[in-house]
């Protein structure tokens, strides 16, 4: 096994007789920010859920900080802050009550719940019901939830969906700070300009396999295209290739 912080080795995932992920090998070093890109159905969420321990590979192994999910599920879960692409909030609770509930589940204090809500700019609106929140504000609650326990690994599915330009910038700053503090970050996005701005490495998936990977600069160099978005369009054509 390598000294990578996240190591996926020969991972396959089969769901309902369909191969969703095929022979995936992926390594992420500590403190690295890695963006997973690819069209609809390429397998981004499936990979992130497997790393988060929500799904298990059909074949192959995944280590986070040298630990496999089946070795010690509690310790494994403690290593990871997972931000799902969607979540059905309890509409009756305020943002602060929601976050405090999640904090208590992790043995953390209400003060930490309030602090992390402030980090995502929801200190004032935190006392309002989540039912009154916009998509972007809900995204910020989910992001705060992933940050709660200051996890060694942040796994985020489409974290910038619905963020306005101001919060996009704040999100980038928070992620850069987390990486500078030694946290390792994996996220999926369709927004290649976001991946280019702050990911140390970009992995392009196609039909559950790695199609291309490198830094933004390397990929642009390889593809001879001024912008990754152009390269992406060239390579993948119309988004959504899997039948
Ligand atoms: N529970 C499931 N049952 C059947 N098929 C599934 C299931 N989960 C995922 N899939 C299929 O696996 C493939 C990959 O899905 P996944 O959600 O990982 O893709 P994605 O890259 O995150 O897509 P998007 O960009 O649209 O969010 C898709 O073809 C999807 O239909």
From TrEMBL:
It comes from the Bacteria. InterPro entries: AAA+_ATPase, ABC_transporter-like_ATP-bd, ABC_transporter-like_CS, ABC_Transporter_VariousFunc, P-loop_NTPase. GO terms for molecular function: ATP binding; ATP hydrolysis activity. This is ABC transporter domain-containing protein. Residues 6-232 form the ABC transporter domain. PANTHER family: ABC TRANSPORTER ATP-BINDING PROTEIN ALBC-RELATED. The keyword ATP-binding applies. The keyword Aminoacyl-tRNA synthetase does not apply. Keywords: ATP-binding, Nucleotide-binding, Transport.
């Amino acid at each position: 096994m390598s000294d990578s912080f996240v190591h996926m080795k020969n991972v396959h995932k089969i769901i309902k007789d369909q191969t969703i992920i095929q022979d995936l090998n992926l390594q992420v070093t500590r403190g690295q920010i890695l963006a997973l890109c690819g069209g609809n159905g390429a397998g981004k969420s499936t990979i992130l859920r497997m790393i988060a321990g929500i799904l298990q590979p059909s074949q192959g192994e995944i280590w986070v900080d040298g630990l496999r999910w089946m070795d010690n599920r509690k310790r494994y879960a403690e290593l990871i802050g997972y931000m799902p692409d969607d979540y059905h909030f309890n509409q009756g609770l305020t943002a602060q009550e929601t976050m405090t509930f999640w904090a208590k589940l992790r043995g953390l204090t209400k003060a930490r719940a309030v602090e992390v809500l402030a980090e995502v700019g929801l200190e004032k609106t935190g006392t309002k019901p989540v039912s009154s929140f916009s998509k972007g504000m809900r995204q910020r609650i989910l992001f705060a939830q992933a940050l709660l326990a200051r996890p060694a690994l942040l796994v985020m599915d489409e974290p910038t969906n619905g963020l306005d330009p101001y919060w996009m910038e704040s999100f980038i700053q928070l992620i850069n700070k987390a990486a500078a503090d030694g946290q390792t970050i994996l996220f999926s996005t369709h927004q290649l300009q976001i991946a280019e701005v702050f990911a140390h490495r970009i992995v392009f998936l196609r039909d559950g396999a790695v199609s291309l990977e490198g830094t933004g600069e390397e990929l642009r160099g390889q593809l001879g295209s001024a912008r990754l978005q152009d390269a992406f369009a060239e390579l993948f054509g119309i988004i959504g290739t899997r039948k």
